[in-house]
Amino acid sequence: MIASLTLPIPLHVERGTLTLRRAVEGDLRALMVLLSDDPISATRGDTASFADTAAYGAALQELVEDPSNDLVVVEDGNADELVGMMQLTRIPGMARRGATRLLIEAVRVHAGRRSGGIGSAMMTWVTTVAAPATGARLVQLTSDEARQDAHRFYERLGFVGSHRGFKFHVD
């Protein structure tokens, strides 16, 4: 948990007010479903299979206990469901005169709730509240090259596609 982040808070979107809060153990199944609610993630193994519950549970516990990380969810209290999520990681750095970065990973909005302002509200909170609260001078994220709609979304919010990312899969 990134202690400097004050949560829960109301998150105002087009259809009303949702709640932005930290993920808890009881959210595990809903988090698995959100991760699998994406064709690209599904091809990488995020299928919300009950057989993977222990692996996801261990990851959730590690994130919750790590002071440099937060797993934040968006809850619709009226529907009693999670409609969004993202992982935030605070990274102290030497580059850019010792700039701290806030890395955003695993951004998901439920497929049936996209284009309703949830993603924009989440990202606005990150850039205007979370980044300053954590001392971050740079907010960064990576996005699969196939996610052209997501790229346009991030660019509309002021993110710049300035770098090319690389990954190395360890077996």
Using the CA coordinates, give the radius of gyration. 16 Å
As a percent range, the share of strand residues is 25-35%
The CATH topology, please? Aminopeptidase
Low-confidence stretches: none
CATH superfamily: Gcn5-related N-acetyltransferase (GNAT)
| Count of helix runs | 6
Structural class: alpha+beta
Distance between the termini: 29 Å
Question: SSE order, as H and E?
Answer: EEHHHEEHEHEH
Helical fraction equals 25-40%
Strand order of the largest sheet: 1-2-3-4-5-6
The total strand number stands at 6
Largest sheet: 6 strands, mixed
CATH architecture: 3-Layer(aba) Sandwich
Whole-number tally of structural domains: 1
Describe the structure.
- This protein has 171 residues and is an alpha+beta fold.
- The chain has one domain: Aminopeptidase.
- The protein contains six helices and six strands, in the order E-E-H-H-H-E-E-H-E-H-E-H.
- It has helices spanning 28-36, 39-43, 53-65, 95-98, 118-134, 148-156, and strands at 9-13, 16-22, 69-76, 81-91, 100-109, 136-141.
- It has a six-stranded mixed β-sheet with strand order 1-2-3-4-5-6, with helices on both faces.
- A hairpin with a 2-residue loop joins strand 1 and strand 2 (16-22).
- The model has no long low-confidence stretch (mean pLDDT 92).
Please describe the topology of this protein.
Blueprint: E1 9-13, E2 16-22, H1 28-36, H2 39-43, H3 53-65, E3 69-76, E4 81-91, H4 95-98, E5 100-109, H5 118-134, E6 136-141, H6 148-156
Parallel strand pairs: 5-6
Antiparallel strand pairs: 1-2, 2-3, 3-4, 4-5
